[in-house]
């Protein structure tokens, strides 16, 4: 059933001027309910495209999703002729911003396309054998395009959230075009942040799911943006931020700053999570915890996650230096709550964190290796082979667990222990 939600009050049927000679020519998508499959969009989204008119040139900043090409071109044609458009800026080449590019270029083949160094690779894939027909300029931080009495200056801001992302600054009007950065999925035809409904939830939800895994890069982007005079931020999705635009930059800075106060000083933090069916994996967890806790360099915490709600741990995990997961093997697999926790890590940066796995098993014991593979997939470093113990651990095996914990702590402290080689085991005796 086609839904027709009148969820864009006062939606502009045509283009909308957002500043002198700067016009919104984007598209409203009030019926969208999920974006990129994973994001819920409770009241849709917008695909914002802008047209900037200078005394000697006209630029289009980003386009829209392919299915909205008609609405985009119709708005554009009300404010400019194709033969006077000199520049197409593509701040980000994901299809929701470039879907209309082929149709646009068919009408304005003479424009100069400005993309970031990584953007050119995606543009080539987008245009395929037509790529060489167009004039493409690779732009970097500080490069400019003159439109006569208007100047566009580029800021290379990669990984917010694709490698290609950049921002564009309209110097004479202190107006920053940010594409996904500082955007949100919120559809309201009143366009401006001081006119639309309450989009605070959408703004943070978008950050959490799109930008949070790239906090480091968001910080680098903010380093470039914060020194600018900013009168308006024009993102690629959601409201145009004309009221208190700097508050949103400040808020992003807050969001990328550590959320949890810590008294650990220089100590590294290690979190041990486990689930146990018959108590054996719990015994292992306790011993690993004890072993790691012997180190003064590491603050170790132990959590039984059988209760199943992993969400409260995400902030903790994000700021931890090491993660250890304990799971029994049941039906040849790790248990579901462990998978739930591992899958929720997609929203945070895990690259480089220490990871380790352990667990008791009855027959086959695949779970530990599966968890290790997942951690490696998350680009965590897994320096110690996972620890598996058949059934309940013996006192000697519990000492192995303590030693495992000691070794993990030593890795975190930057002083990995020499591995003692059991020659009798090598000889098979
Ligand atoms: Fe709005 Fe990353 O695309």
UniProtKB/TrEMBL annotation:
It comes from the Bacteria. Residues 270-409 form the Flavodoxin-like domain. Its cofactor is Fe cation; FMN. PROSITE patterns: FLAVODOXIN, FLAVODOXIN_LIKE. SMART domains: Lactamase_B. One of its GO terms (molecular function) is metal ion binding. SUPFAM superfamilies: Flavoproteins (SSF52218), Metallo-hydrolase/oxidoreductase (SSF56281). InterPro entries: Flavodoxin/NO_synth, Flavodoxin_CS, Flavoprotein-like_sf, Metallo-B-lactamas, NADH_oxidoreductase_modular, ODP_dom, RibonucZ/Hydroxyglut_hydro, Rubredoxin-O_OxRdtase. Keywords: Electron transport, Flavoprotein, FMN, Iron, Transport. PANTHER family: DIFLAVIN FLAVOPROTEIN A 2-RELATED. In the N-terminal section; belongs to the zinc metallo-hydrolase group 3 family. This is Flavorubredoxin.
